[in-house]
Amino acid sequence: MKLESSRTDASQPRPVTVLGAGFIGRNFLAAALGNGWSIRVLDHNPCPQEFNGRLDWIQGDMGSRADVHAALDGAGTVFHFVSSTVPGDEVDESLELQQNVFQTLQLLKLCVQEKVGRIVFTSSSSVYGVHEQLPVPETASTDPISSHGIHKLAIEKYLRLYQYHHGLDCKIARLSNPYGPGQSIDGRQGFVAIAIGHILRGQPIPVRGDGEIIRDFAYIDDVVEALMVLASSESREALFNIGSGIGYSLNEVIARLRTLCAIPVEASHTESRYVDIPKSVLDVSRERYVLRKTSKISLECGLARTLAHHGLPLTQQGTRSLTEA
Question: Where is the NAD-dependent epimerase/dehydratase domain (predicted)?
Answer without folding.
Answer: 17-243
